[in-house]
Amino acid sequence: MPRIRALAHARVRAAVVAALLTPLAACSSGAGPGGSDAKGASGAADRPVTVTVTPKGTKVAAGRPVTVTASGGRLTSVTVTDAEGHRLAGRTAADGRSWVSDRKAVPGAAYTVTAATRSDGGAAKSTRSSFTTAEAGKVNKVDWRPGAGATVGVAQPISLVFDHPVKNRAEVEKLLKVTASNGTTGSWGWIRDWSGGDRVDWRPRTYFKPGTKITLNAQLNGTDSGPDGGWFVRDYTTVFTVGARQIVKVDLDSHQLTLERDGETVRRIPVSGGTPGGDKRSWHGTAVLMAKEGTINMNSETVGLGNAYDKMVDYSMRLTWSGMYAHAAPWNARYFGSVNHSSGCIGMSDANAAWLYGQVRPGDPFEISGKETKGVVAPGNGFGMWNLSWAEWQQKSALR
Protein backbone atom coordinates (compact mmCIF):
# COMPACT_ATOMS: atom_id res chain seq x y z
CA MET A 1 0.00 0.00 0.00
CA PRO A 2 2.74 2.58 0.73
CA ARG A 3 4.43 1.62 -2.57
CA ILE A 4 1.25 2.34 -4.59
CA ARG A 5 0.85 5.79 -2.94
CA ALA A 6 4.50 6.70 -3.75
CA LEU A 7 4.07 5.89 -7.44
CA ALA A 8 0.90 7.97 -7.60
CA HIS A 9 2.60 10.96 -6.04
CA ALA A 10 5.45 10.71 -8.58
CA ARG A 11 3.00 10.73 -11.50
CA VAL A 12 1.23 13.84 -10.11
CA ARG A 13 4.52 15.76 -9.73
CA ALA A 14 5.53 14.92 -13.32
CA ALA A 15 2.19 16.15 -14.67
CA VAL A 16 2.48 19.43 -12.78
CA VAL A 17 6.02 20.05 -14.06
CA ALA A 18 4.93 19.31 -17.64
CA ALA A 19 1.99 21.67 -17.32
CA LEU A 20 4.24 24.48 -16.09
CA LEU A 21 6.87 23.97 -18.79
CA THR A 22 4.41 23.94 -21.68
CA PRO A 23 3.49 27.68 -21.65
CA LEU A 24 7.10 28.64 -21.02
CA ALA A 25 8.16 26.77 -24.10
CA ALA A 26 5.42 28.46 -26.14
CA CYS A 27 6.58 31.94 -25.03
CA SER A 28 10.25 31.21 -25.59
CA SER A 29 9.86 29.86 -29.11
CA GLY A 30 8.64 33.28 -30.52
CA ALA A 31 11.62 35.28 -29.21
CA GLY A 32 14.40 32.78 -29.85
CA PRO A 33 17.12 33.02 -32.50
CA GLY A 34 14.82 31.62 -35.21
CA GLY A 35 11.70 33.64 -34.17
CA SER A 36 9.86 36.20 -36.30
CA ASP A 37 10.85 39.18 -34.05
CA ALA A 38 14.53 38.55 -34.66
CA LYS A 39 13.94 38.45 -38.41
CA GLY A 40 12.13 41.81 -38.29
CA ALA A 41 15.00 43.54 -36.47
CA SER A 42 17.55 42.07 -38.84
CA GLY A 43 15.52 43.24 -41.87
CA ALA A 44 15.39 46.86 -40.60
CA ALA A 45 19.13 46.93 -39.96
CA ASP A 46 20.03 45.54 -43.37
CA ARG A 47 17.55 47.51 -45.51
CA PRO A 48 19.54 50.06 -47.59
CA VAL A 49 18.70 53.76 -47.68
CA THR A 50 17.18 54.93 -50.96
CA VAL A 51 18.63 58.25 -52.20
CA THR A 52 16.82 60.29 -54.87
CA VAL A 53 18.41 63.25 -56.65
CA THR A 54 16.45 65.86 -58.61
CA PRO A 55 17.08 66.85 -61.36
CA LYS A 56 18.44 63.72 -63.01
CA GLY A 57 19.52 62.72 -66.48
CA THR A 58 21.37 64.56 -69.24
CA LYS A 59 20.69 68.03 -70.65
CA VAL A 60 17.92 68.65 -68.14
CA ALA A 61 16.47 72.14 -67.70
CA ALA A 62 18.53 74.50 -65.54
CA GLY A 63 17.11 77.06 -63.14
CA ARG A 64 16.02 74.70 -60.35
CA PRO A 65 17.66 73.90 -57.01
CA VAL A 66 19.22 70.47 -56.57
CA THR A 67 17.18 68.32 -54.19
CA VAL A 68 18.39 65.13 -52.45
CA THR A 69 16.00 62.96 -50.44
CA ALA A 70 16.57 59.84 -48.31
CA SER A 71 14.06 57.03 -47.68
CA GLY A 72 14.72 54.50 -44.92
CA GLY A 73 17.38 56.62 -43.22
CA ARG A 74 18.96 60.03 -42.86
CA LEU A 75 21.41 62.16 -44.83
CA THR A 76 24.61 62.79 -42.88
CA SER A 77 26.29 64.88 -45.60
CA VAL A 78 25.67 66.00 -49.17
CA THR A 79 28.25 67.38 -51.60
CA VAL A 80 27.34 68.78 -55.02
CA THR A 81 30.18 69.89 -57.29
CA ASP A 82 30.41 70.97 -60.90
CA ALA A 83 33.04 69.88 -63.43
CA GLU A 84 35.38 72.67 -62.28
CA GLY A 85 35.19 71.62 -58.65
CA HIS A 86 32.95 74.47 -57.52
CA ARG A 87 30.66 73.38 -54.71
CA LEU A 88 26.94 74.09 -54.64
CA ALA A 89 26.09 74.88 -51.02
CA GLY A 90 22.82 73.78 -49.46
CA ARG A 91 20.93 72.89 -46.30
CA THR A 92 19.72 69.66 -44.75
CA ALA A 93 16.24 69.53 -43.23
CA ALA A 94 15.93 69.11 -39.46
CA ASP A 95 14.73 65.52 -39.83
CA GLY A 96 17.69 64.64 -42.06
CA ARG A 97 15.45 63.29 -44.79
CA SER A 98 16.12 65.97 -47.44
CA TRP A 99 18.71 68.47 -48.67
CA VAL A 100 18.16 71.48 -50.98
CA SER A 101 20.83 73.62 -52.64
CA ASP A 102 20.88 77.35 -51.91
CA ARG A 103 21.52 78.19 -55.58
CA LYS A 104 20.00 76.88 -58.78
CA ALA A 105 21.63 74.53 -61.24
CA VAL A 106 23.13 76.67 -64.01
CA PRO A 107 22.93 76.07 -67.76
CA GLY A 108 25.57 73.96 -69.51
CA ALA A 109 27.01 72.37 -66.38
CA ALA A 110 27.83 68.84 -65.18
CA TYR A 111 27.16 68.06 -61.52
CA THR A 112 28.26 65.20 -59.29
CA VAL A 113 26.22 64.48 -56.15
CA THR A 114 27.71 62.51 -53.26
CA ALA A 115 25.35 61.64 -50.40
CA ALA A 116 26.43 59.99 -47.15
CA THR A 117 23.59 58.28 -45.26
CA ARG A 118 22.83 56.26 -42.16
CA SER A 119 19.97 53.77 -42.22
CA ASP A 120 17.31 53.62 -39.55
CA GLY A 121 19.10 50.49 -38.37
CA GLY A 122 22.42 52.32 -38.07
CA ALA A 123 24.28 51.21 -41.20
CA ALA A 124 26.38 53.90 -42.96
CA LYS A 125 26.56 54.19 -46.73
CA SER A 126 27.69 56.58 -49.47
CA THR A 127 26.07 56.96 -52.90
CA ARG A 128 27.12 58.96 -55.94
CA SER A 129 25.13 60.17 -58.95
CA SER A 130 25.47 62.81 -61.68
CA PHE A 131 23.44 64.92 -64.09
CA THR A 132 24.02 67.58 -66.73
CA THR A 133 22.03 70.67 -67.64
CA ALA A 134 21.19 71.96 -71.10
CA GLU A 135 23.14 74.86 -72.58
CA ALA A 136 21.54 78.31 -72.54
CA GLY A 137 19.88 78.94 -75.89
CA LYS A 138 20.09 82.70 -75.26
CA VAL A 139 22.26 84.61 -72.80
CA ASN A 140 21.23 87.86 -71.11
CA LYS A 141 24.24 90.03 -70.27
CA VAL A 142 24.40 92.99 -67.89
CA ASP A 143 26.15 96.36 -68.09
CA TRP A 144 26.47 97.82 -64.61
CA ARG A 145 27.58 101.02 -62.89
CA PRO A 146 29.53 102.09 -60.96
CA GLY A 147 32.65 100.01 -61.45
CA ALA A 148 34.32 98.15 -58.60
CA GLY A 149 36.58 100.24 -56.39
CA ALA A 150 35.19 103.59 -57.57
CA THR A 151 34.78 106.63 -55.36
CA VAL A 152 31.59 108.39 -56.42
CA GLY A 153 29.39 111.36 -55.64
CA VAL A 154 26.47 111.30 -53.21
CA ALA A 155 23.83 110.86 -55.94
CA GLN A 156 25.39 107.85 -57.70
CA PRO A 157 22.88 104.99 -58.07
CA ILE A 158 23.58 101.35 -58.78
CA SER A 159 22.43 100.79 -62.34
CA LEU A 160 22.04 97.53 -64.28
CA VAL A 161 21.15 97.60 -67.99
CA PHE A 162 20.18 94.29 -69.64
CA ASP A 163 20.89 93.12 -73.17
CA HIS A 164 17.48 91.47 -73.48
CA PRO A 165 14.03 91.96 -71.90
CA VAL A 166 13.51 90.90 -68.29
CA LYS A 167 9.99 89.59 -67.74
CA ASN A 168 10.75 87.73 -64.49
CA ARG A 169 11.48 91.00 -62.73
CA ALA A 170 10.44 90.03 -59.22
CA GLU A 171 12.58 86.88 -59.31
CA VAL A 172 15.57 88.84 -60.59
CA GLU A 173 15.14 91.67 -58.07
CA LYS A 174 15.13 89.20 -55.17
CA LEU A 175 18.64 88.15 -56.18
CA LEU A 176 20.07 91.70 -56.10
CA LYS A 177 21.50 92.17 -52.60
CA VAL A 178 22.73 95.61 -51.56
CA THR A 179 24.49 96.26 -48.26
CA ALA A 180 25.73 99.59 -46.91
CA SER A 181 28.41 100.12 -44.28
CA ASN A 182 26.17 102.47 -42.29
CA GLY A 183 22.85 100.67 -42.76
CA THR A 184 21.58 102.95 -45.54
CA THR A 185 18.47 101.43 -47.12
CA GLY A 186 17.11 102.03 -50.59
CA SER A 187 14.86 100.65 -53.28
CA TRP A 188 15.19 99.15 -56.75
CA GLY A 189 13.20 100.69 -59.58
CA TRP A 190 12.60 99.25 -63.05
CA ILE A 191 12.80 101.79 -65.86
CA ARG A 192 13.37 102.03 -69.60
CA ASP A 193 16.93 102.97 -70.42
CA TRP A 194 17.57 105.67 -73.03
CA SER A 195 18.87 102.87 -75.30
CA GLY A 196 15.45 101.20 -75.11
CA GLY A 197 16.58 98.30 -72.97
CA ASP A 198 15.27 97.12 -69.61
CA ARG A 199 17.11 98.62 -66.66
CA VAL A 200 16.92 98.47 -62.86
CA ASP A 201 18.49 101.10 -60.57
CA TRP A 202 18.95 101.25 -56.81
CA ARG A 203 18.95 104.53 -54.89
CA PRO A 204 18.46 105.53 -51.24
CA ARG A 205 15.70 107.86 -50.08
CA THR A 206 18.06 110.86 -50.06
CA TYR A 207 21.64 111.40 -51.17
CA PHE A 208 24.23 109.06 -49.64
CA LYS A 209 26.24 110.14 -46.62
CA PRO A 210 29.93 110.69 -47.44
CA GLY A 211 32.09 107.70 -46.58
CA THR A 212 29.35 105.12 -47.13
CA LYS A 213 30.66 101.86 -48.58
CA ILE A 214 28.17 100.04 -50.81
CA THR A 215 28.32 96.40 -51.93
CA LEU A 216 26.18 94.79 -54.61
CA ASN A 217 25.97 91.00 -54.93
CA ALA A 218 23.82 90.03 -57.90
CA GLN A 219 23.61 86.23 -57.77
CA LEU A 220 21.95 85.86 -61.16
CA ASN A 221 23.73 82.80 -62.55
CA GLY A 222 21.15 80.14 -63.41
CA THR A 223 18.17 82.53 -63.51
CA ASP A 224 15.81 82.74 -66.47
CA SER A 225 14.95 86.29 -67.60
CA GLY A 226 11.64 85.14 -69.00
CA PRO A 227 10.26 85.04 -72.57
CA ASP A 228 12.72 86.45 -75.15
CA GLY A 229 15.20 87.30 -72.39
CA GLY A 230 17.45 84.27 -72.08
CA TRP A 231 19.51 83.03 -69.15
CA PHE A 232 21.93 84.79 -66.87
CA VAL A 233 25.12 82.73 -66.85
CA ARG A 234 27.24 84.64 -64.34
CA ASP A 235 27.01 86.62 -61.11
CA TYR A 236 27.84 90.30 -60.80
CA THR A 237 29.38 92.19 -57.92
CA THR A 238 30.66 95.70 -57.28
CA VAL A 239 31.91 97.59 -54.25
CA PHE A 240 32.22 101.38 -54.23
CA THR A 241 32.65 104.25 -51.77
CA VAL A 242 30.85 107.59 -51.54
CA GLY A 243 33.14 110.61 -51.47
CA ALA A 244 32.59 114.18 -50.28
CA ARG A 245 29.16 115.79 -50.45
CA GLN A 246 29.44 117.92 -53.57
CA ILE A 247 26.40 119.51 -55.21
CA VAL A 248 26.56 121.58 -58.38
CA LYS A 249 23.70 124.08 -58.53
CA VAL A 250 22.95 125.60 -61.92
CA ASP A 251 20.56 128.58 -62.05
CA LEU A 252 19.79 129.24 -65.71
CA ASP A 253 17.75 132.34 -64.84
CA SER A 254 20.76 134.05 -63.23
CA HIS A 255 23.22 132.17 -65.50
CA GLN A 256 25.37 131.04 -62.61
CA LEU A 257 26.83 127.66 -61.62
CA THR A 258 27.76 127.13 -57.96
CA LEU A 259 29.84 124.27 -56.56
CA GLU A 260 28.97 123.47 -52.95
CA ARG A 261 31.06 121.09 -50.85
CA ASP A 262 29.84 119.93 -47.45
CA GLY A 263 27.33 122.78 -47.43
CA GLU A 264 29.86 125.51 -48.21
CA THR A 265 30.15 127.48 -51.45
CA VAL A 266 33.46 126.71 -53.13
CA ARG A 267 33.10 128.74 -56.32
CA ARG A 268 30.58 130.50 -58.58
CA ILE A 269 30.99 130.34 -62.33
CA PRO A 270 29.16 132.38 -64.99
CA VAL A 271 27.56 130.07 -67.58
CA SER A 272 25.27 130.03 -70.58
CA GLY A 273 22.59 127.33 -70.97
CA GLY A 274 20.31 126.21 -73.79
CA THR A 275 18.70 128.79 -76.05
CA PRO A 276 15.06 129.44 -75.02
CA GLY A 277 12.11 128.74 -77.27
CA GLY A 278 12.83 125.42 -78.93
CA ASP A 279 14.66 122.10 -78.89
CA LYS A 280 17.93 123.76 -77.86
CA ARG A 281 16.64 124.46 -74.36
CA SER A 282 18.37 122.69 -71.46
CA TRP A 283 16.77 120.08 -69.25
CA HIS A 284 16.02 120.98 -65.64
CA GLY A 285 15.80 118.99 -62.42
CA THR A 286 18.57 116.80 -61.01
CA ALA A 287 21.04 115.34 -63.46
CA VAL A 288 23.87 113.20 -62.14
CA LEU A 289 27.38 113.48 -63.56
CA MET A 290 27.73 110.23 -65.52
CA ALA A 291 31.30 110.51 -66.76
CA LYS A 292 34.14 112.93 -67.38
CA GLU A 293 34.89 112.43 -71.08
CA GLY A 294 37.61 115.00 -71.69
CA THR A 295 37.92 116.26 -75.25
CA ILE A 296 35.25 114.82 -77.55
CA ASN A 297 33.64 115.55 -80.88
CA MET A 298 30.15 116.96 -80.52
CA ASN A 299 27.92 116.66 -83.56
CA SER A 300 24.40 118.06 -83.41
CA GLU A 301 23.09 115.44 -85.85
CA THR A 302 23.58 112.75 -83.19
CA VAL A 303 21.03 114.47 -80.95
CA GLY A 304 18.52 115.43 -83.63
CA LEU A 305 19.52 119.07 -84.11
CA GLY A 306 20.52 118.96 -87.78
CA ASN A 307 23.76 120.74 -88.67
CA ALA A 308 23.80 123.19 -85.77
CA TYR A 309 27.36 122.24 -84.73
CA ASP A 310 30.23 119.82 -85.28
CA LYS A 311 33.27 120.62 -83.18
CA MET A 312 35.83 119.30 -80.70
CA VAL A 313 34.91 120.27 -77.15
CA ASP A 314 37.21 120.27 -74.10
CA TYR A 315 36.49 119.30 -70.48
CA SER A 316 33.25 117.49 -71.36
CA MET A 317 31.19 116.31 -68.38
CA ARG A 318 28.25 114.13 -69.44
CA LEU A 319 24.93 114.75 -67.66
CA THR A 320 22.42 112.85 -69.83
CA TRP A 321 22.35 110.18 -72.53
CA SER A 322 20.48 112.65 -74.74
CA GLY A 323 23.60 114.79 -75.03
CA MET A 324 23.49 117.45 -72.31
CA TYR A 325 26.98 118.24 -70.99
CA ALA A 326 28.74 120.83 -68.90
CA HIS A 327 31.88 121.84 -70.85
CA ALA A 328 34.20 124.57 -72.07
CA ALA A 329 32.56 126.80 -74.70
CA PRO A 330 34.96 129.68 -75.47
CA TRP A 331 33.00 130.54 -78.64
CA ASN A 332 30.10 131.60 -76.38
CA ALA A 333 32.19 133.84 -74.10
CA ARG A 334 30.09 136.97 -74.58
CA TYR A 335 27.00 135.19 -73.21
CA PHE A 336 28.43 133.79 -69.98
CA GLY A 337 26.56 135.16 -66.97
CA SER A 338 23.98 137.01 -69.05
CA VAL A 339 22.20 135.00 -71.79
CA ASN A 340 21.34 131.37 -72.48
CA HIS A 341 22.65 130.80 -75.98
CA SER A 342 23.82 127.18 -76.36
CA SER A 343 22.41 124.09 -78.04
CA GLY A 344 21.34 122.69 -74.66
CA CYS A 345 24.61 122.22 -72.81
CA ILE A 346 25.96 124.31 -69.92
CA GLY A 347 28.95 126.21 -71.27
CA MET A 348 31.68 128.15 -69.49
CA SER A 349 35.17 129.50 -70.08
CA ASP A 350 38.15 127.21 -70.65
CA ALA A 351 39.66 128.16 -67.29
CA ASN A 352 36.44 127.61 -65.33
CA ALA A 353 35.70 124.35 -67.16
CA ALA A 354 39.20 123.06 -66.42
CA TRP A 355 38.81 123.92 -62.74
CA LEU A 356 35.34 122.34 -62.43
CA TYR A 357 36.48 119.24 -64.33
CA GLY A 358 39.20 118.75 -61.74
CA GLN A 359 36.80 119.13 -58.79
CA VAL A 360 33.80 116.99 -59.64
CA ARG A 361 33.45 113.21 -59.84
CA PRO A 362 30.86 110.85 -61.37
CA GLY A 363 27.86 110.66 -59.07
CA ASP A 364 27.86 114.35 -58.17
CA PRO A 365 24.36 115.84 -58.65
CA PHE A 366 23.79 118.87 -60.89
CA GLU A 367 20.62 120.55 -59.63
CA ILE A 368 19.42 122.64 -62.57
CA SER A 369 16.68 125.26 -62.37
CA GLY A 370 15.31 127.81 -64.80
CA LYS A 371 12.10 128.95 -66.44
CA GLU A 372 13.19 128.54 -70.07
CA THR A 373 13.86 124.79 -70.00
CA LYS A 374 12.27 121.92 -71.88
CA GLY A 375 11.33 119.53 -69.08
CA VAL A 376 12.66 117.38 -66.28
CA VAL A 377 15.45 114.87 -66.82
CA ALA A 378 13.72 111.48 -67.18
CA PRO A 379 14.83 108.54 -64.96
CA GLY A 380 16.30 106.64 -67.92
CA ASN A 381 18.02 109.66 -69.51
CA GLY A 382 21.19 109.27 -67.50
CA PHE A 383 20.46 109.03 -63.78
CA GLY A 384 17.29 111.08 -63.52
CA MET A 385 15.62 108.97 -60.82
CA TRP A 386 16.18 111.76 -58.29
CA ASN A 387 13.42 113.72 -60.03
CA LEU A 388 10.87 111.25 -58.65
CA SER A 389 9.63 111.40 -55.06
CA TRP A 390 10.65 108.55 -52.78
CA ALA A 391 7.11 107.13 -52.90
CA GLU A 392 7.08 107.31 -56.70
CA TRP A 393 10.44 105.59 -56.90
CA GLN A 394 9.42 102.76 -54.57
CA GLN A 395 6.42 102.00 -56.78
CA LYS A 396 8.82 101.07 -59.57
CA SER A 397 10.08 98.06 -57.63
CA ALA A 398 8.80 94.68 -58.88
CA LEU A 399 8.38 93.59 -55.25
CA ARG A 400 5.82 96.26 -54.33
Structural account:
The protein has 400 residues and is α+β, with helices and mostly antiparallel strands. It has three domains: 48-133, Sandwich (Immunoglobulin-like), CATH 2.60.40.3780; 146-242, Immunoglobulin-like, CATH 2.60.40.3710; 246-384, L,D-transpeptidase catalytic domain-like, CATH 2.40.440. The protein contains five helices and 25 strands. The chain has helices at residues 2-31, 36-46, 169-174, 350-359, 390-394, and strands spanning 50-54, 57-60, 65-71, 73-82, 90-92, 98-104, 110-119, 124-133, 142-145, 151-152, 158-162, 176-180, 186-192, 198-204, 213-218, 236-242, 246-251, 256-261, 264-270, 285-288, 291-299, 310-318, 325-328, 346-348, 365-369. The strands form six sheets. A five-stranded mixed β-sheet has the order 19-18-17-25-20, with no helix packed on it. Strands 1-3-6-5 form a four-stranded antiparallel β-sheet, with no helix packed on it. Strands 2-8-7-4 form a four-stranded mixed β-sheet. Strand 17 (246-251) and strand 18 (256-261) form a beta hairpin. The longest helix is centred in the first third of the chain and has 30 residues, at 2-31.
Topology of this structure?
Layout (H helix, E strand, L loop, with lengths): L1 H30 L4 H11 L3 E5 L2 E4 L4 E7 L1 E10 L7 E3 L5 E7 L5 E10 L4 E10 L8 E4 L5 E2 L5 E5 L6 H6 L1 E5 L5 E7 L5 E7 L8 E6 L17 E7 L3 E6 L4 E6 L2 E7 L14 E4 L2 E9 L10 E9 L6 E4 L17 E3 L1 H10 L5 E5 L20 H5 L6
Parallel strand pairs: 2-8, 10-16, 17-25, 23-24
Antiparallel strand pairs: 1-3, 3-6, 4-7, 5-6, 7-8, 9-11, 11-14, 12-15, 13-14, 15-16, 17-18, 18-19, 20-25, 21-22, 22-23
